[in-house]
Amino acid sequence: MPRTRGRAPAGGRADALSPEIVVGAAVALLDERGERGLTFRLLAERLNTGAGALYWHVANKDELVALAADQVLGQALAAVPRPENGTGLRALAVAVFDGLDRHPWAASHVTAPASLPNGLRLFDRIGTLVARTGLPAERHFAVATAVFYYVTGVSAQIIAPAVTVGATTDRASFLARTAERWGRLDPAAYPFLTGATAALRDHDDRDQFLAGLDLLLDGLSASGRSTAADPRPPT
Amino acid sequence: MPRTRGRAPAGGRADALSPEIVVGAAVALLDERGERGLTFRLLAERLNTGAGALYWHVANKDELVALAADQVLGQALAAVPRPENGTGLRALAVAVFDGLDRHPWAASHVTAPASLPNGLRLFDRIGTLVARTGLPAERHFAVATAVFYYVTGVSAQIIAPAVTVGATTDRASFLARTAERWGRLDPAAYPFLTGATAALRDHDDRDQFLAGLDLLLDGLSASGRSTAADPRPPT
DNA sequence: ACATACCTGGAACGGCGTTCCATACTCTTA
DNA sequence: TAAGAGTATGGAACGCCGTTCCAGGTATGT
């Protein structure tokens, strides 16, 4: 890719490309065909140009996918309700999860430490909300990082596999088959799994995300209560 | 790949391949060159055979990488200390993190729901330890899943980016550059990040994993205390 | 009209995952 | 011992991919 990416001062062709257009088309293609279906040739075809032209606007495929994922994250952040009461962190996390769930390929590309605009915005909003909880200041960064890691990492774990699986079969029958396989395991070697097949069959991914998130947030308020900086120390 | 993969009843050549040998060589190659460096041609060359022969033992590259990651997970599980007191979950999680940290490419390939042997073993051990905490039985599955997601998802978030970054520059200078970029952001738009550059520069990834894990486990014991099934209800 | 900088798009390169298949090896059966 | 079957090999070939290269087009500034 050439050094500069700025547009010509004033003009340019009417049908000119831009990084935004290329990334937008990439998001559409990723939504339709998944990560393996995104190809510079196919993308160029949709944009009525050649593959080489895309490299003027985007360094390589890694950057293209990263930018596409950051755009998805931006849409998710735009959907976050105003943080009114004390539930800001939870609402933010849920909005990100739901946003990524609509574009499953993106989940595994939102990485830390954040470098792209919306990743930075997400981390900053988490940090700002953490700073309001009354936790001692020296713990803000570590806690914010933990929440960021949870939201991005666990979302990726939950959402990403669905891409591979969902293409072939629907979720219910996949869970049923998995549960059946668990049930056939040796109970001596797998005492927990063999008894958990019903729970596996009935579980909901989004609820799992929320359950873990609430554990984390409970731990946050619990540890906040037991610190010296707390305005209302126990007894 | 052909239908069957069983070895001949008794014999075979002295230099015969096997799925174990192929996966073992793949692990070595992944350790040396990372995921992009693993190639069927290169792998075949190391095993003194042709690329086509590998497909007799392994269905495709996805399966090969998944099996390699599961082998790494197996090594990590073998290193877990005996779960004596109440710290079993923490020790298990730490062992998995450290094991994956030694093979960074593997972190993002340990997925849920687990299907390969060591993924199943990990989930079962987490579930067994959760069942011992005194939590009501109907919450065991959800909590075990949350811990599993945390361990695998957050490990992947922390460890995987280091592959891309570490190849070019060392960690300290990467953090320094990132911190400097955060410092140049607009404080009005990024109030938290602009004040967190020092914390970013000094943070330790493993400590972050532990900090979040402890939050989660604190939440676990806190929510365990407040449930109806608890033998000692609050006041 | 000319020079310049930006941008395009098609051809070409090297490498990849995967398939195919002729061949070889070993054990079983006769 | 000879033949057959099943198992495993390895090299050639296929189609596709990311990426590079570059000759040309298109606008602006002089």
Which outline of chain A best applies? Answer: flat
The first-to-last residue Cα distance of chain A is: 64 Å
Mean pLDDT of chain A: 89
Low-confidence stretches of chain A: 6-10, 227-235
Describe this structure in words.
The structure is a homodimer of 235-residue chains. With 235 residues, chain A is mainly α. In chain A, helix 4 (61-78) packs across helix 6 (117-131) and helix 5 packs parallel to helix 7. The radius of gyration of chain A is 22 Å and the shape is flat. Helices cover 62% and strands 0% of the residues of chain A. The first copy, chain A, contains 11 helices and no strands. The first copy, chain A, starts with 18 loop residues before the first helix and ends in a 10-residue tail after the last helix. Chain A has a domain at 1-59: Orthogonal Bundle (Arc Repressor Mutant, subunit A). Chains A and B meet through helix 6, helix 7, helix 8, helix 9 and helix 11 of A and helix 6, helix 7, helix 8 and helix 10 of B. Chain A binds a DNA duplex (30 and 30 nucleotides) through helix 2 and helix 3.
